[in-house]
Amino acid sequence: MNAGVKVFAPASVANVAVGYDILGFALEKPGDEVIVRFKEEPGLVITSITGGQLPYELEKNTAGFAAKQFLNKIGKNNVGIEMEIRKKMPFGSGLGSSAASAVAGVFAVNELLKRPMTKRELLEFAVAGEQIADGAWHADNVAPSLLGGIVLIRDNKTLDVHRLPTPRGLYATVVYPEIEILTSASRAVLSDQVPLSKCIEQSGNLAGFIIGLMHSDFDLISRSLNDVIIEPQRATLIPNFYEVKNAAIEAGALGCSISGAGPSIFALSNNSLKAQAAGEAMQAIFAKAKIESKIFVSKINQEGAIKF
Questions:
Q1: Regarding beta strands 81-86 and 160-164, do their DSSP bridges make them parallel or antiparallel, or are they unpaired?
Q2: What is the spatial distance between Cα 279 and Cα 276, in angstroms, rounded to a whole number?
Q3: Same structural domain for residues 200 and 56?
Q4: Structural domain of 177
Q5: In what order do the strands lie in the sheet with 255-258?
Q6: Interior CA angle at 185 toward 52 and 16, to 5°?
Q7: What is the DSSP string of 57-119?
Q8: Do 10 and 158 belong to one domain?
Q9: Do residues 42 and 107 both lie within one domain?
Q10: Same domain for 131 and 12?
Q11: Does the active-site annotation cover 158?
């Protein structure tokens, strides 16, 4: 029997408070799995999807579309390939679910075909796949899921992406409250007008965060993790958001904000004990409000998508 190739693409946190659409980092878990095998009949088909309701049509599936675009590019669209998708993370969570699927789809096919492209060269196809889900061309979830680490996207249009240093001891906590926030609704609340004073303040925070990463300056990272533009507009979509944020910081987190479009909330800490304590404090606020939640604590995933 043709065993094929099995890959994993991790969840990710986008925006990272001060980098709307231009910053993201990868988590160790959760993530999505994709298995691909050769088949006799020509063409790519999705044969199985577990863990959620997703379309089997390649044009409507982020994993399928990303892989199809890649195959077209390298002139292998007639190669017979079957794909299994195993969703291992919640939809609409603010954890880059559609991005992880897109990354896993194209990465798996590239591995099956003995790597005709590098990981970085696969980025454009994964971004095209995610665009099927949210209609936007941006790499703040896709790039870290594929490449790993903390990623800065200098320019989304040209996919000018760069890995940033990860200080030793930096841990991420993500709490996912089981409520639904559509990405379209989360974007709809945003104003396209930003006061100059807020732009200046946010620019300073973004620069400070990057310098803090470069020098492992946790105090600077903490001072810089303050979103003065996007978070205030989206906070009302998440019940008890500021209570949750304050609980994380009081438990020792460096900072806390909304993961992607929400409803997940992330915190960064300078050791694993504080990361766990922050997560438990955040969960306690949601529990008090009778909102179920899941917690994920991990180092920053430096590998991104992997074959296993």
A1: unpaired
A2: 5
A3: no
A4: 171-299
A5: 255-258, 265-269, 171-177, 293-299
A6: 80
A7: SGGG-HHHHHHHHHHHHHT-TTS-EEEEEE--S-TTSSS-HHHHHHHHHHHHHHHHTT-SS-T
A8: yes
A9: yes
A10: yes
A11: no
Task: Name the band, by pLDDT with cuts 50, 70 and 90, for residue 1.
Answer: very low
Number of domains into which the chain is organized: 2
pLDDT digits (tens, 9 = 90+) for 189-235: 999 999 999 999 999 999 999 999 999 999 999 999 999 999 999 99
Same domain, 132 and 191: no
If asked whether residues 213 and 130 sit together in one domain, one would say no
173 is catalytic: no
The number of helices, as runs of H, and strands, as runs of E, in the chain is: 10, 11
Q: What angle do CA 271, 143, 107 make, to 5 degrees?
A: 110
Q: What is the average per-residue pLDDT within 243-261? A: 97
Using the predicted structure, report yes or no on whether residue 2 has a pLDDT greater than 70: no
Higher pLDDT, 139 or 188: 139
Token representation of residue 53: 């309701």
SS3 of residue 36 by DSSP: strand
Is the entire prediction scored with pTM above 0.85? yes
Q: Determine which of 56-60, 174-178, 179-183 has the lowest per-residue pLDDT on average.
A: 179-183
Whether 63 and 46 map to the same domain: the answer is yes
The catalytically annotated residue of 33, 82, 124, 130 is 130
In DSSP terms, 269 is beta-bridged to 171
Output the domain CATH number for residue 265: 3.30.70.890
Residue 136, pLDDT > 70, answer: yes
Mean pLDDT, residues 294-306 taken together: 97
Residues 138 and 198 in one domain: no
Catalytically annotated residue among 28, 183, 243, 280: 183
Give the gyration radius of the chain's Cα atoms. Answer: 19
| CATH number for 60 | 3.30.230.10
